TrEMBL record:
The glycine cleavage system catalyzes the degradation of glycine. The P protein binds the alpha-amino group of glycine through its pyridoxal phosphate cofactor; CO(2) is released and the remaining methylamine moiety is then transferred to the lipoamide cofactor of the H protein. Residues 16-443, 452-736 form the Glycine cleavage system P-protein N-terminal domain. Belongs to the GcvP family. Residues 782-903 form the Glycine dehydrogenase C-terminal domain. This is Glycine dehydrogenase (decarboxylating).
């Protein structure tokens, strides 16, 4: 029968691409679970009290071609001018070999955080390269694997200085020439914790009246926001005499020419790696950095890649030390960082690998020389250049004419920075051309035609002090010298990607992490120049397309969650948590309730919850969790009564951290509200709710969302992410805002959470596209299939592994927890053994030992089809049979495939004296030899790596060996 045109046009092919199981497979799975339809299943699983009875009010789904056309129209509304604004964001050339083979390559962008290091050796090596670049350029021996941006890195440095410094009181002093967004982020972060900050001109040292108050930390910008390069040694020495910890926020490209912060005496260096090949993207995502003196290494916030050894003694990489500090220290943590910017750190590291030290220095020298010629031309034209010594940024004085000059430059396609009525800032970068200089001179009424650039170049004096020029070598490791040709670089990138396991290889069934399809259509627009090359502080009228996309996404997220207002500024889930709690704090203060500072948190909660609460100036009170995973309501009510007058908020994850729909969530919310508190629902598990229930309607006041989970932004090997905060109307006045872009938030907001006004804006087209492609009904079906897939796995595995927690009707939500603890007792097989054995079967392990030690939390998402799900279930069932062989004594406890997993090709080729065969080791049941994934290393010794901390490229003799 022929279908009508209207029928064909109304079909939504993308939904069928995104959702793995087709209708026939869904029917088979539903029969296994015991339900006749998706609606019947979710009606049984989702409690009546929270279920939404109305459809999502979203635009109808559109095809991939239609959505790309819409995106092109939005992109066309952005004006991409030559940006010479500076302030930490610069034009840069992304080498095409890196653009195509990292940013646009699913082998890199669909990987998860390297918590299973044996199958993450490629990106761990890339991150080790990143750490090496940072340590050697900053002159400090230990660097992390990236932070969220420069502003938040500086705020982390303040907390680190408070934690590690000798002065336990006093103030934190910020130099007046610091990037304004950095100062603002620090102020947002320090006010709730009672840290006092002082902004002062430190060009002549720390003023006596400030020194007398006690100084625990100092932040200096190098070069300054004005462009000034000055010798920081005297003020650093003065700060050290006062007992202060000194942080220098440094431009990495400038450090290829200038003395390092470490050589100047700094304890901590922070900054961004954006100009190492990562587009501005209207503010992000970009990889921030932090490096520290050796004695601070074990308190470094965020992630740290270290060098260890595997079971054969071969060098291997892993995340080291306090990688998830907040999970260990919880309410005692000084950082809530749970993520990084891995994909962007990889790009920046590869930019350094590709160019090498000589190439980086040449780019820096060219950038600096353009700035010098620019300044000389301005002087010749009678313009006062305020900046004496500078690297790339010149500040000019034009009494009362700054706005006129900036407008004149914009009219000829160049954005400059206005600083008050009299000052104009002009920043050069590696993309600056001679035509740009002529345009800038013209905007200042300097006759460009009368200036000979070559003559100016020959006559312009030195703009950097000889005493501050770098003399030591850096990036001497062979990695930074061996990949100059594109052929070599291409093969290096391929060799690293081949070592890793990402979604392009198979399912990553991590509970609470939602590793679903990151569709190519959704990803396509992020590299378009109309999105990639916009400066975050460009005039808002030049970003009309961006702002429309952002506003539409925020409105659609509000509809999905049932809240009234959303801010997409937080650039990670942890930052969304903090933003939400700061909104709650500000709300109570606005009502005169300054004593409301208690945050109730269930004992099973994600570790960031407690850390975020402390950072928001709250006291954490733990609420018990019952054996079935639910919140202990009796203990909750007791805690409410105990802290009634000081109760600020309850933080709870829904569905629960244990992967079930708690039936009494409405009553819990009501009890908190009755006591005058607010309810924060952690959005980590939103993939079980979209289209079925809305937190903002069943009692919550605020949530953060994870666009890198539910809304398809890829995890990028451990970042980027976006953690929007969604609130009901009474909290909306307290959402984040930004001093440099008033339209980015309410005037009464809590200040910036991220350095950029709209956070990681460059990747928002991904989530916008996902919602547009799916429509309301498609989003709902995605949720229903996610619930179906999880329940199907639970049903299949239940005869072999106990399913630890279930909700209504014996059902789970979008994930299930299987209990391995009985097997540890009966057979001596650990959860680690099972996780590593799954590698031999071609899988990334589920989440280990969270929220319960000795368990696996499995989340298949809606994007995995029945074939892959069955392959996983079969692998788990086969592993159970292997465990039984160990338990029965058929295989020795210390020599079996689980204990020795994973098995490498090298191990297979060597001598074999094990109690099991080579085939049993590497080709267990269901593994296809022609498509097998081979791990590059055997099981890694974590303790060795922590005892012998090495976090940059190993010495050359080891490399050669």
């Amino acid at each position: 029968m022929t279908s009508s045109l209207s029928e064909l046009e109304q079909s939504s092919p993308f939904e069928n691409r995104h959702i793995g199981p087709a209708a026939e497979a869904q029917a088979k799975m539903l029969a296994q679970v015991g339900y006749g339809s998706l609606d019947e299943l979710t009606a049984a699983a989702v409690p009546d009290a929270i279920r939404s009875l109305t459809a999502l009010d979203l635009p109808a789904a559109r095809s991939e071609a239609e959505v790309l056309d819409e995106l092109r129209e939005l992109a066309g509304r952005n004006q991409v001018l030559r940006s010479m604004i500076g302030l930490g964001y610069y034009g840069t050339f992304t080498p095409p070999v890196i653009l195509r083979n990292v940013l646009e390559n699913p082998s890199w962008y669909t990987a998860y955080t390297p918590y299973q290091p044996e199958i993450s050796q490629g990106r761990l090596e890339a991150l080790l390269n990143f750490q090496t670049v940072v340590t050697e350029l900053t002159g400090l021996p230990t660097a992390g694997a990236s932070l969220l941006d420069e502003g938040t890195a500086a705020a982390e440095a303040v907390a680190l200085a408070r934690r590690m410094g000798k002065v336990k009181g006093g103030v934190f002093v910020i130099d007046a020439d610091t990037l304004p967004q950095t100062t603002a982020v620090i102020e947002t972060r320090t006010v709730p914790t009672g840290i006092e900050t002082v902004v002062a001109d430190l060009s002549e040292g720390i003023p006596a009246e400030i020194a007398e108050r006690g100084v625990f930390g100092v932040l200096l910008q190098y070069p300054g926001a004005s462009g000034a390069v000055r010798d920081l040694t005297p003020v650093i020495a003065q700060a050290k005499e006062l007992g202060a910890v000194v942080t220098v926020a440094a431009d990495l490209l400038a450090l290829t020419l200038l003395k390092s912060p470490g050589e100047l005496g700094a304890d901590i260096a922070v900054g961004t790696t954006q100009r190492f090949g990562v587009p501005m993207g209207f503010g992000g995502p970009h990889a921030g950095y932090m490096s520290v003196r050796a004695e601070f290494a074990r308190s470094l916030p965020g992630r740290l890649v270290g060098v260890s050894v595997d079971a054969d003694g071969n060098r291997a990489y892993r995340l080291a030390l306090q990688t998830r500090e907040q999970h260990i220290r919880r309410e005692k943590a000084t950082s809530n960082i749970c993520t990084a910017q891995v994909l962007l750190a990889v790009m920046a590291s590869m930019y350094a690998v590709y160019h090498g030290p000589d190439g980086l220095a040449k780019i820096a020298s060219r950038t600096h020389r353009y700035a010098s010629v620019l300044a000389e031309g301005l002087r010749r034209g009678g313009v006062e250049v305020v900046t004496g010594s500078f690297f790339d940024t010149v500040t000019a004085r034009v009494e009362g004419r700054a706005a006129e000059v900036v407008a004149a430059a914009a009219a000829v396609g160049v954005n400059l920075r206005q600083d008050g009525a009299d000052l104009v800032g002009i920043a050069c970068d590696e993309t600056t051309t001679r035509a740009d200089l002529a345009a800038v001179w013209g905007a200042f009424d300097v006759k460009a035609a009368e200036l000979d650039i070559d003559a100016l170049d020959a006559e312009a004096g030195a703009s950097l002090p000889d005493a501050l020029l770098r003399t030591d070598e850096y990036l001497t490791h062979p990695t930074f010298h061996a990949h100059r040709s594109e052929t070599a670089m291409l093969r290096y990138l391929r060799s690293l990607a081949d070592k890793d396991y990402a979604l392009d290889r198979g399912m990553i069934p991590l509970g609470s992490c939602t590793m679903k399809l990151n569709a190519t259509t959704e990803m396509e627009a992020i590299t378009w120049p109309e999105f990639a090359n916009v400066h975050p502080f460009a005039p808002v009228e030049q970003a009309a397309g961006y702002l429309q996309l952002i506003n539409e996404l925020e409105d659609r997220l509000a509809e999905v969650t049932g809240y009234d207002k959303v801010s997409i500024q937080p650039n990670a889930g942890s930052q969304g948590e903090l933003a939400g709690l700061l909104a709650v704090r500000a709300y109570h203060l606005s009502n005169g309730d300054s004593g409301r500072d208690v945050c109730l948190i269930p004992s099973s909660a994600h570790g960031t919850n407690a850390a975020s609460a402390v950072m928001a100036g709250m006291r954490v009170v733990v609420v018990k969790t019952l054996a079935d995973g639910d919140v202990d309501v009796e203990d909750l009510r007791a805690k409410i009564e105990q802290h009634r007058d000081s109760l600020a908020v309850l933080m709870v994850t829904y569905p629960s951290t244990h992967g079930v729909f708690e039936e009494n969530i409405g009553d819990i919310c009501a009890a908190i509200h009755e006591a005058g508190g607010q309810v924060y629902v952690d959005g980590a598990n939103l993939n079980a709710l979209v289209g079925l229930a809305k937190p903002g309607k069943f009692g919550a006041d605020v949530s953060h969302l994870n666009l890198h989970k539910t809304f398809c932004i890829p995890h990028g090997g451990g970042g980027p992410g976006v953690g929007p905060v969604a609130v009901r109307a009474h909290l909306a006045p307290f959402l984040p805002n930004h001093p440099l872009q008033p339209t980015a938030g309410p005037e009464t907001g809590v200040g910036p959470i991220s350095a950029a006004p709209w956070g990681s804006a460059a990747i928002l087209p991904i989530s916008w596209s996902y919602v547009r492609l799916m429509g309301g009904e498609g989003l709902k079906r995605a949720t229903q299939v996610a619930v179906l897939n999880a329940n199907y796995i639970a049903k299949r595995l239940a005869p072999y592994f106990p399913v630890l927690f279930t909700g209504p009707g014996g059902l789970v939500a979008h994930e299930c927890i299987i209990d391995l603890r009985p097997l540890a007792k009966s057979a001596g097989v650990s959860v680690d053994d099972v996780a590593k054995r799954l590698i031999d079967y071609g899988f990334h392990a589920p989440t280990m030992s969270f929220p319960v030690a000795g368990t696996l939390m499995i989340e298949p998402t809606e994007s995995e089809d029945l074939t892959e799900i069955d392959r996983f279930c079969s692998a788990m069932i086969a592993i159970r049979a292997e465990i039984d062989k160990v338990g029965s004594g058929e295989w020795p406890a210390e020599d079996n495939p689980l204990h020795n997993a994973p098995h490498t090709a090298a191990a297979l080729a060597g001598e074999w004296d094990h109690a099991y065969t080579r085939a049993e080791a590497v080709f267990p049941a269901g593994v296809n030899p022609t498509t097998k994934y081979w791990p590059p290393v055997r099981r890694i010794d974590g303790a060795y790596g922590d005892r012998n901390l090495v976090c940059s490229c190993p010495p050359m003799d080891e490399y050669e060996g």
